[in-house]
Structure formats: structure tokens, C-alpha cells
Amino acid sequence: MATENRASRYELRSGDRWYVAMTLPRKERMAAANLDNQDFRSFLPLQLLTLRHARKIRTELVPVFARYIFVIINADRQRWRSINGTLGIARLITDGEKPLAVAPGIVETLIQSSNEKGALVFQTDLVAGDKVRLLAGPFAETFGVLQRLDGAGRVQLMLDLIGGPVKVSVSRDMVAAAR
């Protein structure tokens, strides 16, 4: 049922288009909440990022596009200029006097590629033996070789660390194919 509500939330109705609003620095979530309070439907794509500071490591969801959020507007029926006065929003991206619409399919692809929390999860076909990169956790940005995938969404990797090869088991969304 959650996926049905999510799908209908982002469904474009007659005259609706996706637009981009620029937010104030680090106020993307505030902007999304305030747009929702005004009955504008917004989408904030997120990604897992491992942050390291003073010997502490934490992984958190951060916006993919810093200072930008997508919003559905029917420019003919809605008072879209009110978005510029929304807390957390710097301005709606416009082309002169009218808001500038996002090309069809871009935001829809981001929504389809995200989980229920809005975090992007790009599922590529990985097979045992592929070189992969860890995206999050204490070994973030470390490269390894995929050893095994299981049906529960976990992968087993062989990382080459200072002391030699180490087996690690992580969630599938924490690895990406190495480029």
C-alpha cells in the first residue's frame, strides 16, 4: 500500500509538470516539508554518504542535488509564485516570467530508482567476480571483488586491506560497480 500512495503522490495530472526550485543552503528538507504544507507535491532525491570527522564515521542520507528540489506545478491553475516565499526556498528556476519545466522522464526515472525513503538505489546487474566499490560504512570508497549475492539483498565481498584479503557482507545498496 505504501508504494501505491507513493506512486499516486508523484503521478502527474492534466497540466502538471515537474519544475526545479533552488533552496537555501542545507534547507532542502525544510523546503520539502513547507511545500507539502502548502499542498505542493515535491521530490527530494537522496543518497547514502559516509562522513568522516574527528575519528568518527557516520553514514547519512543527503540530497543528491545540493540546494535543489523538484516540485509538481500546474502553472495555469496554481499560484506558483508563492513557492518563492516558502521557507527554505530561495527561488523557483524560471525562464523569464514563467517557471522552467524539467524535461519529461528525468524526475520520473529518479523516483523509480529510489526506495521508500527517497534514497537512490541504482540496481545494476552484478555477478560474482565483478569489481565493486563500497558506497557507505567504515570502508566507504574501498574497492573489492564481489564473491556472492543472496536472495535477501546482501552481498559478500572480498576487500584487499592492509593485512590482506578480508570477507565482508553488506547490503546490496551499499555497493556499486567499480568504474
Could you describe the 3D structure shown?
The chain has helices at about 1-10, 30-35, 105-110; strands spanning about 15-25, 40-45, 45-55, 55-65, 70-75, 90, 95, 100, 130-135, 145-150, 155-160, 165-170, 175. The chain has about 180 residues and is mainly β. The protein folds into two domains: about 1-110, Alpha-Beta Plaits; about 130-175, SH3 type barrels. The chain has a five-stranded antiparallel sheet with strand order 12-11-10-9-13, with no helix packed on it. Strands 2-5-1-6 form a four-stranded antiparallel sheet, covered by helices on one side. A two-stranded antiparallel ribbon has the order 3-4. β9 (about 130-135) and β10 form a beta hairpin. The two termini are about 35 Å apart. The model has no long low-confidence stretch (mean pLDDT about 90).
